[in-house]
Structure formats: structure tokens, C-alpha cells
Amino acid sequence: MALIRSPRAWTAAFGLGFLLLLIYVTWTSAPAPAPRAADLVCQRAVREQVANARFPFAARASDVGEGQIVLSGIVDAARAGETIRRNYTCWVRRVSPGDLLVDSLHVWQSH
């Protein structure tokens, strides 16, 4: 078995290890896109509050445990020829396999 003896080889091995660790941490910590069923349930609830709602971006989801998912997203609404962008946060709970319920929905305009 060959041992790494040169300082350059040690530096290269350390750098490669650090790079792989950095890629792993970045990959695992990025917010996951919302599960499709939860996203659809939230979009339906948002449409009840926001007329002419359009969703330009996918919502981001966080599983907070105990069958709850928090989704955060952006909704556009057309009003008098203008598009008004709003944010929303939606708490969804699994009440049975395949059945989701919106526990809470908050829609606000940031500016």
C-alpha cells in the first residue's frame, strides 16, 4: 500500500475531501421543493383569498414533524391591469394517508 508522502499530495487530498464535504452539506441543506399534493392544497386555499392568483415559482417546503409541512411561496394577482406580488405561508397537516388539510394560511404583501 502506498502512503501519501509529499506535502502537495496531502494538500490535494485534503482539498478534495473538503470540496466533497462542502458539496454534501450544500446538497442536503438546500430547501426541498414542496411535495406536489401539499402544493396543490395550498394553492387552492390561496386562490380562495387572492382573486386571479398565479404562482410564478414553486413553493418551498419544510417538514416540521408530526405530519406537518410548512410551505412558503409567492403568488401574483392581477388587479386593474397591474400585477401585485404577495407572499404566503401555508401550514399543511396529514390527516390520513393521502389526505391533507390546511391548518393555517397567511398571505401578505411585502412592499
Structural overview:
- The mean pLDDT is about 85.
- Helix content is about 35%, strand content about 40%.
- The longest helix is centred in the N-terminal third of the chain and has 23 residues.
- The protein starts with 6 loop residues before the first helix and ends with a strand.
- By secondary structure, the chain is of the alpha+beta class.
- Strands 1, 2, 3, 4, 5 and 6 form a six-stranded antiparallel β-sheet that branches.
- A hairpin with a 2-residue loop joins strand 5 and strand 6.
- About 15% of the residues are buried.
- The protein has a domain of about 80 residues.
Short précis:
By secondary structure, this protein is of the alpha+beta class.
List the helices and strands and how they pair.
Layout: H1 7-29, E1 32-33, H2 36-49, E2 53-54, E3 60-65, E4 68-79, E5 82-96, E6 99-108
Antiparallel strand pairs: 1-3, 2-4, 3-4, 4-5, 5-6
Helix content: 25-40%
Low-confidence stretches: none
Number of strands: 6
How many H/I helical runs? 2
Main sheet specs: 6 strands, antiparallel
- N-to-C terminal Cα separation, in Å? 64 Å
Q: What oligomeric state best describes the polypeptide chains here?
A: single chain
Could you tell me the radius of gyration in angstroms?
22 Å
